[in-house]
Queue: 2 jobs
Job 1
Amino acid sequence: MSADETLDRAYADHVAALRTAYAKALAAHGFDAVVIHSGSARKRTDFDDQYWPVRPVPHFQHWAALQEPDALLVVRAAGVPTLYRVTHVDFWEHPYAPEREHFFAHFDVRGVASVDAVKGSLPAGRVAFVGDDLARAAQLGLDAVNPAGLVRDLDALRVTKSRYEVLCLIEANRRAARGHDAVLAAFAAGEGVELALHLAYLGATSQDDPETPYKNIVALGSNAATLHHVSYGRRPTEPTRAGAAESLLLDAGATFLGYCSDITRTWVRGRGEAAGVFRGLVDAMERSQRALCDAVRVGDGYEALHDRSHDQLGALLAEAGVVRCSGAEAVAKGITRRFYPHGLGHSLGLQCHDVGCALTKPRGDNPFLRNTSRIAVGQVFTIEPGLYFIDALLRPLREGPDAGLVDWSLVDALTPFGGIRIEDDLFVAGDAPGAVENLTRPVLPVGGGQV
Ligand SMILES: [Mn+2]
């Protein structure tokens, strides 16, 4: 079977399962049908006439890989769903053509002149509206807008991924890998302008900036200490100009049929004492990240894995001499949380931070953890431990009673390198220990290191 046939068949199973699951959810909440609106273009500001490209609502994309405003999918308790597409007569612009057309055959597709034209064709009975343009719900005369119970059940369907969705996530990883390879090559060749690296990534992945799953994080040197560094430098950095050692943190993904990849790599070029220590830390973080990926077990809490990432970071900081206490003490005193403030990872799918894995709050000392679920077959999530030299977070430690537990001259020497994050996307394919598939490493084998 060709890859295209495999994807088509997997989609047929995906949509059949969705129809069954939607019928159940509709019945559970007393609805006869649901209208899912793809979305509307949003204005960049109220004071001009420019719009952002539409990013379809995920419930819509769960069915149809169609990046088109004002498409309406009507799903009833039984029968083939109806897909209404507004046939725009617009000589200013028109929407993206879908990358693949495999989904059309699974819907009763109808062209309409406007959203208003759908109103008379809505199913009888109680009809819910799911979407983010509430004006459209009003236009259609629907007042059950994003009903909480129904939306919760529909979101739950996105937590475990179908074979089709995993194939899309694999392709999204493959595309992102091309970008990471291109940026690494440019960095290795001496490129020291963040904007140039960002544009190289877009070019290699054939993505326009608004199409990426999230804004690329392209950080040279100390900018890596800004966790979401997206204000790219437009001139060569100081170390590049001086021919000194430099680090690069690239956190960037790609989309395929609406599904996202989310990958981070950290590199260092050049030599010198501090660069050597930093490289050693990158290598240690790489080993730690791989060990965490290997430790994923069905039935365990993800938060326990996050705690384990702090234990490993504590050991690693002690080993490198960054802390002058045991790793366990560094964790117990909250020191590792000053070097690694974010969570170990998050659910991934149609949204970069996908739904369903953060239904309960994390413990108070893990405020930014976005996955508190029990690890289950079918989940896709990231594993992305980090280590950073963030002045604002380290200052209270430096000025507090535990200051003596840190080698500050070493911290100061490492601060120009910003930080380290290594991130892969994992699919829990089965409940045996070896049944967790890393979707990233087959296409991007190394997490970082010296170039
Ligand atoms: Mn991530």
Job 2
Amino acid sequence: MTIPVSQWHVNAWQQLQAGRRQQRLPHALLVSGEAGIGKAAFADRLAASLLCEQPREDGQACGTCPACQRLAAQTHPDRLRLEPEEPGKPIKVDMVRQLIQHLSLTGHYGGYRVVTVEPAEMMNTNAANAFLKTLEEPPASTLLILITASPARLPATIRSRCQPMRLTSPDPQTALAWLQQEAPDSAPQEAELALRLAAGAPRLAAHYLREGWLEVRQQLIEALIGCAHGRTDPLAAAATAQEALKLDRQLPIHWMYHWVADLIRLAYDENNIKNNDMTGELQALPTPVEYSALHHLLDKLQQARRLTETTINPQLLWEDLMIDWAGLFSARRV
Ligand SMILES: [Zn+2]
């Protein structure tokens, strides 16, 4: 089966296919763009296209030849991936060395070899240095595809040796139509909300819907509301946040940040808040809170976002945040 290239990436696709026909494909490509817009899917299609024995006229893989079948079974020896062992962990130098050793041998089928590095910014310093040598002396008939949402976090020496390919999000209408096809069981309002929370990135929105993130977000706001009214103990609310952390280390803090920011915005213009599906919940909180205290909590949340990238104990972090949150309202309740 052939899965077409996302409609919103067709221009980038055609540009690469034209380069291929003129035998002017680069040795290395730096595919960048916001999280959740389909960068990895694009790289997968490109890899399939280069490995396929009889690609279609538009360059897409046929989906049926022996090479395509090996790819589908994930047994194609010329399709290589460099990625962390677990999300959030670095790509280490040993993994790069293994790859380099593999690339020093000739390809198994005499055609292209395609390597994807994702997320490329997760290569640690030693790994990046080792990888740089491969970029400086690229092996023949090999395409290295570096994938990243944060190209600025890659060393300039690596960036300068790759052809940049920045992929963009689709317009909102295209994104919503795609998402509704992808997640037909979701209500239209849910699809719209997921898309908004994903800042318009359709694949990220589909992931939110599939993994039940909207429900988890609802549980977290309910825990916060319970805390504000004194019904929920801050430590119990922190435990709810711990559940949300199973999905993502940063996202629950990101949500809370925007709820607090919305509480500040509500004072000026209720039509301009980010979480407009939660206007009612936010307006029902005990008021008025001290705005200086809200700003203080915002600063703390911003700091907490950075701390999640360290070895900080998330339970203590969340208990601290929830106690501060409850404290905003404790003097206001009667
Ligand atoms: Zn094929």
